[in-house]
Structure formats: structure tokens, C-alpha cells
């Protein structure tokens, strides 16, 4: 936009390289842990992989990170931990648990905005948040294809980064880019190591907590259209057939192309929705 | 008896005449503007203005050092004559107006005469408060056609945005921000 003279490598380091490296290392340890029989520990740690890897990106983008947190962005880095952990609550309360954890965690991040809201506004926003979080988790838990679901997520996340960047905030777009990079690294690692699908699926679900928090931040703090964000996330509702390529002997690139295509179309519509009337500056 | 009455009467008169010089003004937003100028790629200066602010000031012609001002700017009223850019400047990348909806300036001292001088004060921007010096020039004062008493001043200062935690895109957008204040007040 401004044609600033920052080297591409310096830009890529926090957005792509750091989270990819972190995700590769953490997921490798996790896959090895699962293979060595410590499946329960691996299951508990799996949703945290993306958050941990994303932190390496986030601290490189939000360079004035304070601990203890002082600004909303400081809180954003920490609070995804709670909904991520809530993903491991018992099955019968998981949807509500995740929704409540996500809404309350984001309320901490959005303290300055929540403080200016009326009670009616707080209630309506909380209900909206609970619905989105609940539906997202429900859709994610239906997924059993560890090849196509992460790819679909990566495409949706990429589109949300574009929408956020063009709408208003480049730093938040970069934050979303960090989630994509981390999830992409895990997907590649799972392919290379030919792991069982459960752990990669749990890791992919864990990425949803971080993604939803950043999207909520983009909506509340940077005025990114909630309709565009909901639209580009519609492919979450697609239930990808479970590993059909083995039976049908379909080449994987066909699965990949179909997944990318189905996931990118709502994102393109979202881009069209938010595209500014004035030329970019 | 008369002597004992004269003393308080004279004291009161002195106090009344003194307060007539230290007049309190309410900022007239219709005739007040705050501009930020910032370098764009080294080619030009982009001008940004804030359309909504409120404040009060006290101007003492006889003892200018007693003058003071408090201004609160609505950060969300930022206008750079380009809607998409406004949204970007208001976003967490720059001013983060959802988190920091107000920019405030509260003077702490004045050095100079009745027509020009340096007003020192605390500028709070993006959640960070720093001391800044505003070079002030008095433009004029007097009664307007409707009987209100007005006075007006111009002020200029330069701040570094990085010192206020606004440090995105330092390569393309300058660090130094030239602030220009055009203020008019109506005497209360």
C-alpha cells in the first residue's frame, strides 16, 4: 500500500518462518509422543500446538507485547489458551464449554469496548458469539478427514487474512497469516510422517480457537465486516468425506483442488463484499 | 466604622477586576481544527484532521503564565479525505481508536507573553502520555456580531509517533508528525 522499503525476508520471518518452524518442532514431538504410546498426553496437548506456534508469530508482529498484559493486543496473545483448553472438556458439555470460554476470553480482550456497551448490547453480542463458537466447534467435530479439513481451514484463513488486510488492519492480517503458516506446517508434517488422523484433526480444531479470537478482534477493533467474516467461514459447514482417496484411488491432487475450490469461493465473495469503493492508497 | 467597611470593599473590587483579566473560554468546535501532517514515502505530506473535539481554556492577558487549556479530541473523528485510509489509521495498526477513543492535551505551564509563547502540557495519545511543547501565537480577541466575546490562537508542535507506540510502517510513513492547532473560544 505504501511501498515501504522493508525486506521481504524481514516481513516473512514472523508471519511464516517462525510459526512454521515452531509448529514443525512441536507437532513432531507430539506425533512421536503419540507413537510412543502416550496418546492421552498427546490428545491433551494437540489443541495447544497452533496457539504455541502462533505466539512466535504474534510476538514478532506485535513487537510491544507486555506481560502482564496492558493493551488489548497483549490480552489477545494470551486468551486463546482458555477456549483451546475448553476443547478438551467432556463431549456432552464441549460445545457450550467452548462457546462460553471463547466469549468470556474475548470479553477480557475487548474490555475497553465492553465497558462502553449497554447491557442489551453485551447480551446480544454474547449470544451471537456463543452461536458462532458453538456452530464452529460442532462443524469441526464432524470432520474426520485429516487431509482435506486442514486444507479447507488454511484456505479460509488465507481469505480472512486478505479480507482483514484490505478492510483495515495489516497487522491483524499478518496475525492470521501466522495461524495459516503454523497449520500448514502441521499438515505437511502429518503427511510426511503418515500419522493417524486423530492428532492432526485435534490440532486443526485447536487452530479454530485462535482464528476465531483474531477474527473477533478484527471485527471489534478494526471494523472488519462480520458478514464478510461469516461468509468466508461458510465452508466450515462442509463435511469432507473421510479419506475416500484410499478406496476410490483418486489422486490426492484432485481432492486438494476440490477442497481449495470449495473453500475459496465464499472467500472471494467476502472480498468482493468488503472491496473499498475508493482505490487502495 | 467607615474604615472597616472600605477595606473589604476595596479587596472585593481588586478580586473582581483581577478575575476580569483571567477569562475562561469554551472551545468553539465550529472554528477549531486540529491537523496532523505526516510524511508519505518522502514525496509529500499527508494531512489528517480531527473533526470533533471539545475543551476549555483560561487566558490571562495580564499574567499569561496563568493561562491553561484542556482539549479532548474524538480520535474516531479522524478524516484524511480517504475513507479506506481513515479506517486503516483508526485500526490497531495505528491509533487503535476503539481502545483509545480520546486524545487529550492538558497544559501544565506557559512561558511567554500575552501574544506568543510556549505552552507545555501532557499529550495522551494511543494510551501513552508525554510532555510536549506547543508554540502558541495569539490571533486576536474581541466581540463578535452577536455579542459573544471570542479569542483565537494557533499552535504548532512536532511529535514522534514511535514515542507514542504508533510504530507500524515506519519505512513508508514518517515518524515525525507536525501538529497544528487552530483554536477559537467563546468566553463563558
Automatic annotation (TrEMBL), chain A:
<keyword id="KW-0812">Transmembrane</keyword>
<feature type="transmembrane region" description="Helical">
    <location>
        <begin position="96"/>
        <end position="114"/>
    </location>
</feature>
<feature type="transmembrane region" description="Helical">
    <location>
        <begin position="202"/>
        <end position="220"/>
    </location>
</feature>
<feature type="transmembrane region" description="Helical">
    <location>
        <begin position="12"/>
        <end position="31"/>
    </location>
</feature>
<feature type="transmembrane region" description="Helical">
    <location>
        <begin position="226"/>
        <end position="244"/>
    </location>
</feature>
<keyword id="KW-1133">Transmembrane helix</keyword>
<feature type="transmembrane region" description="Helical">
    <location>
        <begin position="120"/>
        <end position="140"/>
    </location>
</feature>
<keyword id="KW-0472">Membrane</keyword>
<feature type="transmembrane region" description="Helical">
    <location>
        <begin position="147"/>
        <end position="166"/>
    </location>
</feature>
<feature type="transmembrane region" description="Helical">
    <location>
        <begin position="43"/>
        <end position="61"/>
    </location>
</feature>
<feature type="transmembrane region" description="Helical">
    <location>
        <begin position="256"/>
        <end position="275"/>
    </location>
</feature>
<protein>
    <submittedName>
        <fullName>Uncharacterized protein</fullName>
    </submittedName>
</protein>
<feature type="transmembrane region" description="Helical">
    <location>
        <begin position="172"/>
        <end position="190"/>
    </location>
</feature>
UniProtKB/TrEMBL annotation, chain B:
<protein>
    <recommendedName>
        <fullName>Lipid/polyisoprenoid-binding YceI-like domain-containing protein</fullName>
    </recommendedName>
</protein>
<dbReference type="InterPro" id="IPR036761">
    <property type="entry name" value="TTHA0802/YceI-like_sf"/>
</dbReference>
<keyword id="KW-0732">Signal</keyword>
<feature type="signal peptide">
    <location>
        <begin position="1"/>
        <end position="22"/>
    </location>
</feature>
<dbReference type="InterPro" id="IPR007372">
    <property type="entry name" value="Lipid/polyisoprenoid-bd_YceI"/>
</dbReference>
<feature type="domain" description="Lipid/polyisoprenoid-binding YceI-like">
    <location>
        <begin position="24"/>
        <end position="186"/>
    </location>
</feature>
<dbReference type="Pfam" id="PF04264">
    <property type="entry name" value="YceI"/>
</dbReference>
